[in-house]
Please model this.
Amino acid sequence: MRLPDDLVAACVEPAWDLWETRGRRLASWRRLRCLQWDPPASVDARRRAALAAIVQHAAATTPFYAERFAAAGLDPRAVRDIADLARLPVLAKDDLRVRGAELFSRAVPREELVPAKTGGSTGVALQVWCDRAGVDLRGGAALLVDTWSGWRIGQPVAAVWGNPRVPRTARQRLRAWARERILFLDTMRIDAAAIDAFAAGWRRLRPGLLFGHAHSLFILAEALEGRSLAPPPRGIVATSMMLLKPEREVIERICGVPVTNRYGCEELGLIACECERHGGMHLSAETVWVETLRADGSPCAPGEDGRLVITDLVNRGQPLIRYAVGDRGALAPDPCPCGRGWPLLAALTGRTADFLFALDGSRVAGISLIENTLTRLPGIRQLQLVQEARGALVANLVPATGWSEITARALTATLRDALGADLRVEIRLTERIAQEPSGKYRFSICRVPA
Model:
C-alpha cells in the first residue's frame, strides 16, 4: 500500500522528525524557508555572528585551535569577519587525518557526535564528526534546496546511487515504507534488467524527485531514450560530482525537467545549490562561509577562479575553520535575480587534485577541457583523461555514432593545444568508464605529484 503524499507530509514526516531529531531538522527547514528571502545585509549580519561564535567556541574548547590561534597571534574574540582570519592557516585534509582527535570540542559529549567518512577518491579517506544538532541543521538546509527543484516534502524519491543501503532492522524497514519511500537504481549494476525494474518501480511509486550522481543520471537518461518516466518527476537534483553541460542537456531533453545542480561534501554537508533560475549556485550562507583563495593565500576577486576554503558555521563537535575542501570555484559578483539573499557560487571548476599539468608547468582544469571537447567533437559518448606523468595523457573514450579517425586526430590536437604541442596522447577505446568504489565517476584524474 502506498501512503498518500499529503499524509506523509502532514503526519508521518513531522512525527518521525520529532522522534529522530527532536524536531530540529524540520524546524531548521521552516526557519531557512523564511530567512532565504532576507536582504544580503541581514544574511551577512547573521553569518558574521555565527562565525564569531564558532571561532570563539573552537579556540576555547579544542586543543588544535587553541594552539593555532596562539601561533597566528590572533585573538578569537576579535574575529568579526572572514577577513579577520587571513593569518590563520587553512585546515588541510592531512590536519584532519593526523590531528583530528585534537579538533574534538571538550564542550560536546562524544555520544552526541555523528560520524561521516569520505570516499577517498583523491587518495585520502577521512573520518569526520559533527554534533547531532549540527547534522540536523544541515539536514534542514538540504531539505530546503531540494524543494527548489519543484519537489515537495512527502513525495517519494528515486535515487540513482552507488551501493544503496538496504533496510535490515524492523525500524529501518518501517522508515523506508512510511517516510523515505525511495526507489533505488544501483549505479554499480545498470543494465537492461535494472532499467526495466526501475521503470516498473517508478510506475508504482510515482516519485516527485529524481536524485543522484550527475553522470549516473546521464547514463539513466540515455537508457530511457525512447521511453518515458510517467508521471515525470517534479524535480531532478544532480550532486556528488561535476555536472557537465552536454550531459545536463541530455538529461533535460529525455526527462523533460530542468536539472538542479547541488554541491556538498561529507565533511560539510550542503555547500551550494542552484535555485529555479539556474544561474549559479546559492551558497548555504546560514551553515557555511566560503572563501576563494589564490595560490598565495590572498582572496580572489569576484568571478576569479580559486581554491575553495570553507568554514562550517554549525559543527560544534569537531569545528572545521578555513577547511581546504580540495575543490576550485569562483564567487559571483552580483546577486541572483531570484531575490534570495544568499550569495552565489558562479562556477565550480573542479577538484584541485584533478587539474592537469601542461608542458610549461601551468595547470588546466581537466573537467573544462572535457566539457569543451564533448561539445565540439562528434562521436564521443564519454571521456576520461588520466595523467600519470608530465608530458603524457591517456584518454579513455567510449565512442558514439560518428566516431572516426578524423575525430581522434581532432581530439589529440585539442589536448595538445591546451597542454602543449609535444604532449604524448594515447586514446584507449572502451565500452564504459570505470566507477569509483562509491559509485561515482571521475573524468579528470591527475596522479602527477604537485
